[in-house]
Design goal:
The protein is mainly alpha-helical and 160 residues long. Helices cover 48% and strands 10% of the residues. The longest helix has 15 residues.
Amino acid sequence: MIAERKVRHVVLYTFDAAEEFLTIARDIGVSGVVLKSATGDVLATALERVVAGERVGLDDVVRATRSRTSKDLSPREQEVLALLALGRTNAEIGEQLFLSVDTVKTYVRRVFAKLGVNNRTQAAMHAAERSLTPRNGAWISREAHGRDASSGHQRPQLPG
Protein backbone atom coordinates (compact mmCIF):
# COMPACT_ATOMS: atom_id res chain seq x y z
CA MET A 1 0.00 0.00 0.00
CA ILE A 2 2.82 2.39 0.80
CA ALA A 3 4.88 1.46 -2.25
CA GLU A 4 1.81 1.70 -4.49
CA ARG A 5 0.98 5.11 -2.97
CA LYS A 6 -2.56 3.99 -2.09
CA VAL A 7 -2.22 5.68 1.31
CA ARG A 8 -0.46 8.85 2.41
CA HIS A 9 0.50 7.75 5.91
CA VAL A 10 0.88 4.51 7.82
CA VAL A 11 1.24 4.58 11.59
CA LEU A 12 1.99 1.34 13.39
CA TYR A 13 0.30 0.95 16.80
CA THR A 14 2.16 -1.75 18.70
CA PHE A 15 3.00 -3.12 22.15
CA ASP A 16 6.74 -3.20 21.49
CA ALA A 17 9.16 -1.88 18.89
CA ALA A 18 12.53 -3.59 18.70
CA GLU A 19 15.32 -1.91 16.74
CA GLU A 20 14.98 -4.30 13.77
CA PHE A 21 11.23 -3.57 13.69
CA LEU A 22 11.96 0.16 13.50
CA THR A 23 14.58 -0.35 10.81
CA ILE A 24 12.11 -2.24 8.62
CA ALA A 25 9.40 0.36 9.32
CA ARG A 26 11.77 3.18 8.26
CA ASP A 27 12.88 1.27 5.15
CA ILE A 28 9.34 0.66 3.87
CA GLY A 29 8.23 4.25 4.47
CA VAL A 30 6.11 4.01 7.60
CA SER A 31 5.19 7.48 8.88
CA GLY A 32 5.15 6.67 12.57
CA VAL A 33 5.27 4.12 15.34
CA VAL A 34 3.23 4.60 18.51
CA LEU A 35 3.36 2.25 21.46
CA LYS A 36 0.07 1.02 22.90
CA SER A 37 1.35 2.11 26.31
CA ALA A 38 1.11 5.74 25.16
CA THR A 39 -1.61 7.91 26.65
CA GLY A 40 -4.47 9.11 24.50
CA ASP A 41 -2.93 12.60 24.39
CA VAL A 42 0.40 11.22 23.18
CA LEU A 43 -1.37 9.13 20.52
CA ALA A 44 -3.41 12.11 19.30
CA THR A 45 -0.34 14.36 19.17
CA ALA A 46 1.63 11.71 17.25
CA LEU A 47 -1.16 11.38 14.69
CA GLU A 48 -1.39 15.16 14.29
CA ARG A 49 2.37 15.35 13.73
CA VAL A 50 2.21 12.59 11.10
CA VAL A 51 -0.60 14.39 9.25
CA ALA A 52 1.58 17.53 9.33
CA GLY A 53 4.33 15.59 7.54
CA GLU A 54 6.61 14.54 10.40
CA ARG A 55 7.89 11.02 10.93
CA VAL A 56 7.18 10.02 14.52
CA GLY A 57 8.62 7.38 16.85
CA LEU A 58 10.95 5.77 14.36
CA ASP A 59 14.10 6.64 16.32
CA ASP A 60 13.30 7.17 19.99
CA VAL A 61 10.46 4.77 20.80
CA VAL A 62 12.76 1.89 21.87
CA ARG A 63 14.88 4.02 24.18
CA ALA A 64 11.76 5.32 25.91
CA THR A 65 10.48 1.85 26.71
CA ARG A 66 13.84 0.38 27.68
CA SER A 67 14.52 3.12 30.21
CA ARG A 68 11.67 1.88 32.41
CA THR A 69 12.13 -0.74 35.08
CA SER A 70 9.90 -3.80 35.02
CA LYS A 71 7.96 -2.53 38.05
CA ASP A 72 7.05 0.86 36.51
CA LEU A 73 3.63 1.28 35.01
CA SER A 74 3.37 2.93 31.62
CA PRO A 75 1.06 5.95 31.34
CA ARG A 76 -1.58 3.76 29.68
CA GLU A 77 -1.27 1.13 32.41
CA GLN A 78 -1.73 3.92 34.97
CA GLU A 79 -4.91 5.01 33.16
CA VAL A 80 -6.23 1.45 33.23
CA LEU A 81 -5.33 1.08 36.92
CA ALA A 82 -7.00 4.41 37.70
CA LEU A 83 -10.25 3.29 36.12
CA LEU A 84 -9.94 -0.18 37.62
CA ALA A 85 -9.50 1.41 41.07
CA LEU A 86 -12.74 3.30 40.47
CA GLY A 87 -14.52 -0.02 39.96
CA ARG A 88 -14.93 0.21 36.18
CA THR A 89 -15.47 -2.99 34.19
CA ASN A 90 -13.18 -3.95 31.31
CA ALA A 91 -15.91 -2.87 28.87
CA GLU A 92 -16.25 0.53 30.58
CA ILE A 93 -12.47 1.02 30.62
CA GLY A 94 -12.31 0.10 26.94
CA GLU A 95 -15.08 2.51 26.07
CA GLN A 96 -13.46 5.40 27.95
CA LEU A 97 -9.95 4.76 26.57
CA PHE A 98 -11.08 3.71 23.07
CA LEU A 99 -9.64 0.20 23.46
CA SER A 100 -11.10 -3.23 22.78
CA VAL A 101 -12.04 -5.37 25.77
CA ASP A 102 -9.25 -7.82 24.84
CA THR A 103 -6.69 -4.98 24.87
CA VAL A 104 -7.97 -3.84 28.27
CA LYS A 105 -7.60 -7.41 29.55
CA THR A 106 -3.99 -7.40 28.34
CA TYR A 107 -3.30 -4.14 30.21
CA VAL A 108 -4.99 -5.47 33.35
CA ARG A 109 -2.78 -8.60 33.23
CA ARG A 110 0.32 -6.42 32.82
CA VAL A 111 -0.70 -4.20 35.75
CA PHE A 112 -1.28 -7.27 37.92
CA ALA A 113 2.12 -8.70 37.00
CA LYS A 114 3.97 -5.43 37.60
CA LEU A 115 2.24 -4.82 40.94
CA GLY A 116 2.52 -8.45 42.02
CA VAL A 117 -1.21 -8.77 42.66
CA ASN A 118 -3.77 -11.41 41.72
CA ASN A 119 -7.04 -9.51 41.39
CA ARG A 120 -8.69 -6.12 40.85
CA THR A 121 -9.28 -5.52 44.54
CA GLN A 122 -5.59 -6.02 45.35
CA ALA A 123 -4.62 -3.68 42.50
CA ALA A 124 -7.01 -0.98 43.75
CA MET A 125 -5.70 -1.44 47.30
CA HIS A 126 -2.14 -1.13 46.00
CA ALA A 127 -2.99 2.31 44.61
CA ALA A 128 -4.83 3.31 47.81
CA GLU A 129 -2.00 2.17 50.10
CA ARG A 130 0.33 4.56 48.33
CA SER A 131 -2.17 7.40 48.77
CA LEU A 132 -2.60 7.65 45.03
CA THR A 133 -5.87 8.62 43.43
CA PRO A 134 -6.72 8.92 39.74
CA ARG A 135 -7.30 12.32 38.17
CA ASN A 136 -7.66 12.68 34.40
CA GLY A 137 -5.52 9.60 33.79
CA ALA A 138 -2.62 10.89 35.92
CA TRP A 139 -1.60 9.92 39.42
CA ILE A 140 -1.38 12.54 42.15
CA SER A 141 -1.06 12.35 45.90
CA ARG A 142 -4.22 12.40 47.96
CA GLU A 143 -3.11 15.69 49.58
CA ALA A 144 -2.77 17.37 46.18
CA HIS A 145 -6.12 15.96 45.11
CA GLY A 146 -8.03 18.44 47.28
CA ARG A 147 -7.38 21.33 44.90
CA ASP A 148 -7.64 21.46 41.13
CA ALA A 149 -4.28 22.93 40.14
CA SER A 150 -5.59 24.58 36.99
CA SER A 151 -8.49 26.45 38.59
CA GLY A 152 -7.82 26.45 42.34
CA HIS A 153 -11.34 25.09 42.88
CA GLN A 154 -12.02 22.47 45.51
CA ARG A 155 -12.28 19.01 43.95
CA PRO A 156 -14.66 16.37 45.34
CA GLN A 157 -12.98 13.74 47.48
CA LEU A 158 -13.02 10.12 46.39
CA PRO A 159 -14.19 7.57 48.94
CA GLY A 160 -11.54 5.73 50.88
